[in-house]
């Protein structure tokens, strides 16, 4: 079976195709669809068999829970036993939008959807195609990112087709997504809200709205024995086929070090991959150099990250070196994904110099 691909734009919905997508989902089938963050792989969240199909299509470990997508606030009440006041404040401010919140679940939500957990992750996306499709499907769509497990999340319908074209019923092509990194996840099952995955909505934005908010300890020290609370955050993820390392330090030192790796590879008759910002991209004479975006407009870096990682899979490189992008607003989210893609391999050029 090859997935049917239908195209539409957010301001010109194809109502007939949306109705068909809704029907496929109600019958237990799978439909990939755009959201403002990344493309999702949707199935009926209240149907255990549909959730099992999602895990199978992605090759995803079944202990890694799915996010339930809704298209109105009333739907939330059916899924969760209680909504704390602070969560209502966040919903008011950031929904619909790139925010996922975790609550204790009701029995309406099958354990197949939550990976066996008593809690459920819920998101109300702002993308109008996503909203229309969720409504057509009956209101509750479980959707992980629509990539094969372990690969970079899809930011275009073509990425979805590459990974899952043979495994699902329909792909709704709504063009490239806006943000390019998955939603911020905030856990409301403990006394203080905890960020389990950083995203476009930063820790600072959450603190401004709520006061005390913690970052999951498993994210801050990912190499320690503390496991991230979101099961999905423990896997090596977003990984390109080549070995990726992040080179960090003062700009000139980073450029010099990366050029050194490129020159050494050149002598062996090989090429390295290089991921650079617009501001430095012209300073790398050797290797396959890809511009990820501008430090001045950090959303561009978030937007292009997964595309660049996927593009390197088409290139003959066995090593990729990336600059670090600790930008002010989205730096936490960008570096969280980049570090995971690199299996936390960091080359610190200052440290190297100190050792000499
Ligand atoms: O932006 C997004 O959130 C995208 C789009 C499609 O909406 N979806 C997405 O889903 O990124 P996925 O499945 O790739 O990531 C869901 C993350 C995983 O790390 C999972 O472990 C965590 O959410 N998660 C889901 N339910 C959870 C729960 N009850 N407790 C803790 N973590 C949970
Ligand atoms: Mg994912």
Small-molecule components bound: threonylcarbamoyladenylate, magnesium ion
Helix content: 25-40%
Please report the total strand number as a whole number: 16
Shape annotation = globular
Q: Point out poorly predicted stretches.
A: none
Radius of gyration: 21 Å
Walk me through the structure.
The mean pLDDT is 94. Helix content is 33%, strand content 18%. It is built from 12 helices and 16 strands. The chain has 356 residues and is an alpha/beta fold. The chain has helices at residues 15-26, 48-58, 73-79, 85-94, 128-136, 157-164, 203-210, 217-220, 251-267, 298-312, 331-341, 349-355; strands at residues 4-7, 31-33, 40-44, 67-69, 99-104, 119-123, 141-142, 170-173, 184-187, 194-197, 214-215, 243-248, 273-276, 288-291, 319-323, 346-348. A hairpin with a 6-residue loop joins strand 2 (31-33) and strand 3 (40-44). The radius of gyration is 21 Å and the shape is globular. The chain starts with a strand and ends with a helix. It has an 11-stranded mixed sheet with strand order 1-8-2-3-7-4-6-5-9-10-11, sandwiched between helices. The longest helix is centred in the C-terminal third of the chain and has 17 residues, at 251-267.
């Amino acid at each position: 079976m090859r997935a049917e691909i239908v195209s539409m734009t957010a301001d010109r919905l194809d109502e007939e195709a949306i109705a068909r997508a809704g029907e496929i989902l109600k019958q237990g089938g799978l439909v990939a669809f755009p959201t403002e963050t990344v493309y999702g792989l949707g199935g009926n969240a209240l149907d255990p068999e549909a959730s099992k199909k999602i895990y199978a299509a992605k090759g995803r470990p079944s202990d890694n829970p799915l996010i339930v997508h809704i298209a109105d606030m009333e739907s939330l009440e059916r899924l969760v036993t209680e909504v704390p006041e602070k969560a209502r404040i966040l919903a008011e401010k950031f929904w619909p939008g790139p925010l996922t919140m975790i609550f204790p679940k009701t029995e309406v939500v099958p354990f197949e959807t939550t990976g066996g957990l008593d809690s459920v992750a819920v998101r109300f996306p702002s993308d109008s195609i996503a909203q229309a499709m969720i409504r057509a499907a009956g209101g509750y769509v479980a959707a992980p990112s629509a990539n094969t497990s372990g690969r970079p999340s899809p930011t275009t319908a073509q990425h979805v087709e590459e990974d899952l074209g043979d495994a699902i019923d329909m792909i709704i092509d709504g063009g490239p997504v806006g943000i390019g990194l998955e939603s911020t996840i905030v856990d409301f099952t403990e006394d203080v809200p905890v960020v389990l995955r950083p995203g476009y909505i930063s820790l600072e934005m959450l603190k401004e709205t709520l006061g005390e908010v913690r970052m999951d300890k498993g994210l801050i020290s990912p190499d320690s024995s503390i496991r991230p609370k979101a099961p999905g955050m423990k896997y090596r993820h977003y990984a390109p086929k080549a070995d990726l390392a992040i080179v960090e330090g003062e700009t000139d030192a980073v450029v010099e070090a990366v050029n050194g790796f490129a020159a050494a590879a050149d002598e062996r008759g090989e090429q390295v991959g290089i991921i650079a910002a617009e501001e430095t991209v012209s300073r790398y004479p050797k290797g396959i150099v890809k511009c990820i975006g501008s430090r001045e407009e950090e959303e561009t870096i978030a937007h292009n990250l997964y595309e660049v990682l996927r593009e390197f899979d088409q290139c003959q490189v066995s090593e990729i070196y990336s600059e670090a992008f600790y930008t002010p607003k989205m730096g936490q989210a960008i570096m969280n994904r980049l570090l995971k893609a690199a299996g936390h391999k960091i080359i610190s050029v200052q440290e190297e110099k100190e050792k000499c």
